[in-house]
Structure formats: structure tokens, C-alpha cells
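Design a sequence for this backbone.
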């Protein structure tokens, strides 16, 4: 279980109010003539990326956006950066509209779009990492000496100091993503938007970046962070609260723990028993004992363990109705152990699996993760 993020009780920094975004219909036919004909007849359907979305991000927190592909996460981030104009509704940062007052808000914001190959042209292909990052510092008005000091620190933190003079166009996809992530480490703005920040990164680098986001940006430098991700462990490890988007609509907002509690899947116990096979100490007796300890539970042999059965142990899966964090959650495990002991059934090992954030997410979005185009 990852360390729980520290609770945050700040005033709203970002307020999203009834934001809807509809894109024109997909062009069909030669030159889009079929779509034009459908529009004239009132048959062409617009593509809805966001539909009446409202939530707020509190100052000082790490706020996550989860959703399947096409749920509208990146569209929302682009509206926040005045790259896309909403069809209706509005967003405000510190009370200023993100479209009307973007120039006033931009100096204290920085956004990394992980899926963009060149971060909207910020980086010149035939300039080295150092020069490109110095240019970013100039854009945000940092003194050149401060920028250079922070570049050295960022390259060390992200472990690509050897790429300081490497041309941008020669960098691998993973190294380019490190370069993108160096931008918020150097600028240290009050509001940071990270759209899939660990895409293309290997596991060790991803873990290091998690620490930098939480400890360096958020806790040490006080940056409020809006994070979009498909990585459930990443969301659970980093986020104070999470909004789930599904088909452009806001499903709910809750803490990672709160989302896990919403899962309908109960606690699952994996028990390995040493049975003699004699009456009272066989599979039937074990089933009866487990059912007595947890009435209503689903009891089955673990098919994988049963096939191997090399250690003469019998493995049961006990799917209980106990909800994570509930009183029955704390009750069921000791009750199972006590019942097996009373009936002289030898328990060799026990593993308890609680519902995960992924379990809750799949239930919320409908189970298949498929989305309309948005």
C-alpha cells in the first residue's frame, strides 16, 4: 500500500463550472461533402468531449483526473490553457477566466502534455537540452543565472545530465519526456498541469518522477497540481482527490480511499490448508468451516494452485461480502482463523486482498473501458 498523501484543506484555486465542449462532426465523403449534406438536413451529430463538467481544485492539493481514452481529460487541460474554447461554461483560476484572462494567468502556470511529441513547438530540434531549457526560462522571465542553476538541478534529479548538449531531435521518446518534466522543475509555478506525465517512462524513472511531483513540486515548492493519468497506482500514490470522467461527464469526485470503498467487490482471502483427507479434515469440512466463519461468502478452490498441488496443500479462495474499511473487514479474518483452529483444520498461509482503485474505476466506467471518440 503506497503512503497516503497528506490531507489538504485549501481554498479553491481552480473552479470548473458547467463546462461543455462539442466538436464538429467527423468529415465524411470526398472533401466532407457527405457531412455537409447531413448538416444541411440536420442529421450530422457533433462529437461531445465534455458535457456539463463541474468541480474545483483546492490550493495546495494534487488533484487527479481519471478516465478511459476519449473521456475528455486532455480536452479539459487544453481549455484550461486557452488552447480550446469551450462550447459553454467556464473555468477560473484564482477567480480569473482561463480564456479571457489567459495572459494574466500564464506566468504562474505551467503545463506538460505527455502525449505531445514536441510540446507544441517549444523545443528546437537542432538545439541542445541546455539551450532549449534556457529558452523556456527566458519565456517565463527567469534570470538566466537562476535558470542555469535550476537546469543543473533538474537534469540531476531526472538523471539525464549526459544529454545536456544533445540535440532535441536526437533524443529518445523517454528522454524527451524527461525534458518535458524538467520544465515544471525549473519554473516552479504556483499551478502545474501534468497530462499523463509518466508516459513513455520506464518503471524506475516513473517512481522517481512520482517522488519529484509529490515531494519537490507539491510539498517543497507548494505547487497545486492537476494530474491526468491512466496509471491507477500513480493516481493512488500521488492524488489527494480524484475526479472520474466517463464519456465526457463527471462521474464523481472522491479520495483514492473513498473510491476503493465504493467498490462492490468484497475482501478476498486466499487460504492454504493442510488437510489429511479423513472425515472432519477434508475439503468438505474446510468449506463448512469457512462458510460458518463468513456466511454468504463465495468459496472455491484456487484452480491454478489446485493444478500444481506440489506441496500437498489445498488452496481456497474466500470471496467475502466484507467492504474495505468496514467493521466486517476487521472482523472476518480473525473469525476465519479462529473457526479453522477450533475445528483442527491446519492453516498454513493466509493472504488478504482488498478491492483496488482499478476495481472501483472499472465498476464506475462500466467495466469495458471503451469510450466514444472525444
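Sequence:
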Amino acid at each position: 500500500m503506497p503512503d497516503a498523501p497528506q490531507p489538504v484543506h485549501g481554498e479553491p484555486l481552480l473552479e470548473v463550472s458547467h463546462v461543455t465542449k462539442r466538436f464538429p462532426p467527423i468529415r465524411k465523403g470526398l472533401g466532407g461533402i457527405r457531412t455537409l449534406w447531413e448538416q444541411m438536413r440536420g442529421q450530422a451529430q457533433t462529437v461531445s468531449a465534455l458535457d456539463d463538467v463541474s468541480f474545483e481544485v483546492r490550493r495546495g492539493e494534487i488533484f487527479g483526473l481519471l478516465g478511459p481514452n476519449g473521456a475528455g481529460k486532455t480536452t479539459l487541460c487544453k481549455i484550461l490553457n486557452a488552447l480550446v474554447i469551450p462550447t459553454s461554461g467556464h473555468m477560473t483560476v484564482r477567480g480569473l477566466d482561463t480564456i479571457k484572462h489567459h495572459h494574466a494567468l500564464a506566468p504562474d502556470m505551467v503545463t506538460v502534455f505527455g502525449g505531445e511529441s514536441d510540446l507544441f513547438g517549444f523545443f528546437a530540434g537542432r538545439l541542445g537540452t541546455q539551450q532549449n531549457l534556457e529558452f523556456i526560462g527566458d519565456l517565463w522571465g527567469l534570470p538566466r543565472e537562476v535558470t542555469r542553476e535550476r537546469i543543473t538541478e533538474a537534469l540531476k534529479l531526472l538523471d539525464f545530465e549526459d544529454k545536456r548538449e544533445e540535440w532535441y531531435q536526437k533524443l529518445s521518446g523517454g528522454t524527451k519526456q524527461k525534458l518535458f518534466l524538467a520544465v515544471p522543475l525549473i519554473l516552479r509555478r504556483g499551478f502545474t498541469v501534468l497530462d499523463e506525465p509518466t508516459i513513455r517512462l520506464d518503471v524506475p524513472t516513473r517512481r522517481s518522477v512520482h517522488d519529484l511531483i509529490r515531494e519537490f513540486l507539491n510539498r517543497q515548492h507548494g505547487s497545486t497540481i492537476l494530474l491526468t493519468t491512466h496509471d491507477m497506482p500513480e493516481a493512488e500514490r500521488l492524488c489527494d482527490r480524484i475526479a472520474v470522467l466517463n464519456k465526457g461527464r463527471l462521474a464523481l469526485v472522491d479520495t483514492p480511499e473513498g473510491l476503493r470503498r465504493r467498490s462492490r467487490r468484497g475482501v478476498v482471502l486466499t487460504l492454504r490448508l493442510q488437510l489429511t483427507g479423513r472425515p472432519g479434515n477434508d475439503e468438505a469440512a474446510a468449506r463448512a468451516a469457512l462458510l460458518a466463519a463468513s456466511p454468504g461468502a463465495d468459496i472455491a478452490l484456487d484452480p491454478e494452485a489446485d493444478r500444481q498441488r506440489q506441496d500437498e496443500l489445498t488452496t481456497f479462495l474466500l470471496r467475502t461480502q466484507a467492504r474495505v474499511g468496514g467493521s466486517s473487514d476487521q472482523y472476518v479474518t480473525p473469525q476465519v482463523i479462529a473457526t479453522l483452529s477450533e475445528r483442527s483444520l491446519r492453516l498454513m498461509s493466509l493472504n488478504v486482498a482488498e478491492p483496488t482503485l482499478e476495481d472501483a474505476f472499472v465498476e464506475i466506467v462500466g467495466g469495458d473501458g471503451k469510450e466514444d471518440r472525444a
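The chain has two domains: 12-262, 268-354.
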